[in-house]
Amino acid sequence: MDRTCSSGKKGFNTQELAVEALLHVHVHYVASKTVNVYQCELCNQWHLTSKGEMHPELKQAINDGTLQERIKKLEWERRYGKF
Ligand SMILES: [Zn+2]
């Protein structure tokens, strides 16, 4: 995960980690344009990308409200702190 890629992008060892990061980005940055993950030819790690189709898990999280729920939870924690 700390290996640097010559593309300069942050890399993830597995697709699962990259998808989790993709969702995480959308929770923290609502205006984020990242939509998907891909495996890099240079470093073999997974990177986030703003090109192409939206990842099905991200689409589902938006559609079923999971993402909105995580955003709300984050706002709550920022306002009142963690319990
Ligand atoms: Zn790479």
Describe the structure.
With about 80 residues, this protein is mainly alpha-helical. It has a domain at about 15-70. About 45% of the residues lie in helices and about 10% in strands. The protein is built from 3 helices and 2 strands, in the order αββαα. A two-stranded antiparallel ribbon has the order 1-2. Strand 1 (about 35-40) and strand 2 form a beta hairpin. Helix 1 (about 15-30) crosses helix 3 (about 65-80). The radius of gyration is 14 Å and the shape is globular. It starts with 14 loop residues before the first helix and ends with a helix. The model has no long low-confidence stretch (mean pLDDT about 95). The chain binds zinc ion. Zinc ion (ZN) binds next to loops.
The total strand number stands at 2
The average pLDDT value, as a whole number, equals 93
The small molecules bound here are: zinc ion
Distance between the termini: 30 Å
Protein structure class = mainly alpha
Q: Could you name the key traits of this structure?
A:
10% strand; 3 helices; two-stranded antiparallel ribbon; mainly alpha; binds zinc ion; 83 residues
